[in-house]
Amino acid sequence: MASDPFQPIGRYCRQIVDELRKTATPAAREWPAWSITSFVFVILPMILAAGMDLGFGELTLMVFG
User: Fold this and answer.
1) Would you give per-residue pLDDT tens digits along the chain (65 residues)?
2) pTM (predicted TM-score)
3) I want to staple 2 with a disulfide (CB 3.0 to 4.6 A). Which of 7, 36, 41, 61 is the partner?
């Protein structure tokens, strides 16, 4: 066990900074494609969850209602 309790915290922060330096920012012409892709991959699960919620709600009303 480390004698300094803050040593693991410092190591963790250094590792975060090292990983962030490895990331690549998309070029300006790539932004629209990345934005549309991100939008689609967020909207699709939202639609799926809303559809399931409505479907199970209607099913529950039919069974117990």
Assistant:
1) 557 888 999 999 999 999 999 998 889 999 999 999 999 999 999 999 999 999 999 999 999 98
2) 0.55
3) 7
